[in-house]
Amino acid sequence: MVMDMVTTMTLNDFEERAMAYGARIDGWPEEDQAPARALMAESAAARTALEEAASLDAMLDLWEGPQPSNALLSRVLSDAATVTSEMPAASPAPAPAREGWFARLFGTMPVFRPGMALAACLALGFIMGTTIEESVIAPAPTEMAEEISVIDFAFAMEDDSDLLLGPEAFL
Amino acid sequence: MSAGVATGSAAGFGTGRIRRWQGGVTMVETASAASAETDGDDDDALIVRFAAGDQSAARILTERHLGRVLALATRMLRDTAEAEDVAQEALMRAWRNASKWEPGRAKFSTWLHKVALNLCYDRLRKRKSSSLDEVAEPVDDRASAQDGMEADERLSVLKGAIADLPERQRAAIQLRHFEERGNDETAEILGVSVEAVESLLSRGRRALRDKLAGQRAMLLEE
């Protein structure tokens, strides 16, 4: 069995709502509307209270709202334009960072950078390792002859007190 | 507030035609095609557009809200010039704070009415503190000039009765009766509870009923 959930309203509550919200029951709090209509259907006193509220509504409605003048509209829009003109200009987009030679060669994707650097280091290490090893362990005969001649020259000049030779003399 | 030089485009209003004015609600026809395309935007979207520099958004917001804000201020202050200053200042605050507006956090209309109402309270307080109690309430000359003698007398009686109400009762009646706002929004604008809104309305309307009881036949031309 479905219960009728429409609550009842006392005449006193009805009069209070009519006094507060006026005669238009559609404008009353939603939960009060159905009970109010039910009471109004059966209570002459409720109908009288609503007529009284309608009279007050009609008196209030005599005071129509003013119409905004064109001058006021212009002033308001002028204010808006002024505020807009005072707004800080949108900051320019940051200039793209200059690409270095590495980026130009290998691209700018960050994920590839460590890999590229590692590969470059390995290649450089391999080249350096092989060339240095050759020069230390087995210098070429021509290079040895050149080195000896430079040393000889240095010692030959040893007595010359005005001449100082630095390590660069051996390069 | 001084008017300043109107540099903004008021063409939309100038070419428009006010079709109906009832209870503070206005509908303005405009010839602007751009307006027709963008009038459907909600207030949140419009205030964000204005913050980005879109002047047409300001025009649409003004069309939507200026009339109601002006009506609120007029009924609160009962002075056309002061009410216009309040309406202008309230919208100025909207323009100035547009960049800080957080869509969805509050209803723009509620915020704007709250600002306008607080400006009205400030002016009413200043009137009191300026010892103007002995000076007669300002009379809306524009209304007097437009209305006939009889209608003007009726309106004057009604305005006087409303002006005698405490400020918050007056504001509650403005928001509920004239603007047909719900209890929740009225409570938010007034900064009181929903129960307090009903109490303010009930006391205010009862006071008006008692005050106007003797003039009922004259007011309603019975």
Write up this protein:
The complex is a heterodimer of chains A (171) and B (222). Chain A is an all-alpha fold and 171 residues long. Among the domains of chain A are: 11-60, no CATH class; 102-137; 139-171. In chain A, 61% of the residues lie in helices and 0% in strands. Chain A has helices at residues 11-21, 30-42, 44-60, 70-86, 101-106, 113-137, 141-156. The longest helix of chain A has 25 residues, at 113-137. With 222 residues, chain B is mostly helical. Chain B folds into two domains: 17-135, Rna Polymerase Sigma Factor, Chain: A, CATH 1.10.1740.10; 139-222, Arc Repressor Mutant, subunit A. Helix content of chain B is 66%, strand content 5%. Chain B has helices at residues 11-15, 33-38, 43-51, 55-77, 80-96, 108-129, 141-146, 149-163, 167-178, 183-190, 194-212, 216-220; strands at residues 17-22, 25-29. A two-stranded antiparallel ribbon of chain B has the order 1-2. In chain B, strand 1 and strand 2 (25-29) form a beta hairpin. In chain B, helix 10 (183-190) packs across helix 11 (194-212). Mean pLDDT of chain B is 80; it is low at 1-37. Classes of the chains: A mainly alpha (171), B mainly alpha (222). At the A-B interface, helix 1, helix 3 and helix 4 of A face strand 1, helix 4, helix 5, helix 8 and helix 9 of B.
Give the fraction of residues assigned to helices of chain B.
Answer: 55-70%
Order of helices and strands of chain A: HHHHHHH
Radius of gyration of chain B: 19 Å
- The oligomeric state is heterodimer
Strand line-up across the major sheet of chain B = 1-2
Question: Would you identify the CATH architecture of the largest domain in chain B?
Answer: Orthogonal Bundle
Characterize the overall form of chain B.
Answer: elongated
Class by alpha and beta content of chain A: mainly alpha
Classify the beta-strand content of chain A into a percent band.
under 5%
Unreliable segments of 5+ consecutive residues of chain A? 91-97, 134-171
Name the helix and strand elements of chain B from N-terminus to C-terminus, one letter apiece.
HEEHHHHHHHHHHH
Structural class of chain B: mainly alpha
CATH superfamily of the largest domain in chain B: RNA polymerase sigma factor, region 2, helix turn helix motif
